[in-house]
């Protein structure tokens, strides 16, 4: 792709996503939950969707999703103007894969939490901690499926 097709912010987000692991929001989640006493495995290929964090003791997994690549309905996602068909195919396939992974994991009795990148982007350290508290509370609870996102982070 020519370098002028996307703006710098989008490009840096894409590069982080291409690297695929150890992205900043994922590190925030790992560190925050580790600090709260949770122990987990990373990127288990044996599980549908290769979840980012796996908590066998809690029969729970966490996905940390970038808003661009996973087509989040939030202010951080906009369809790129150039090559619309390419992006619809690419991101559409990611959305479909996420949905299928969630269904497969739930069918196998895993609890599934999705934490979106927008939970942390542009938020204060207090909001980061509030979101990590929410994630910890979810892990200790019994909810089968939930998500944490920027516009409900800090709401309580
Ligand atoms: Zn988002």
Automatic annotation (TrEMBL):
Q: What class of enzyme is it?
A: hydrolase
Alphabetized Pfam families for the sequence: Vsr
E.C. numbers: 3.1.-.-
Print the keywords alphabetically: DNA damage, DNA repair, Endonuclease, Hydrolase, Nuclease
Which GO biological process categories is it annotated with? mismatch repair
Q: SUPFAM superfamilies per the record? A: Restriction endonuclease-like
GO MF entries: endonuclease activity; hydrolase activity
Record carries keyword Ribosomal protein = no
- InterPro entries in the record, alphabetically? DNA_mismatch_endonuc_vsr, Restrct_endonuc-II-like
Family the entry assigns: Belongs to the Vsr family.
- Name it: DNA mismatch endonuclease (Patch repair protein)
Query: What species is this protein from?
Result: Novosphingobium marinum
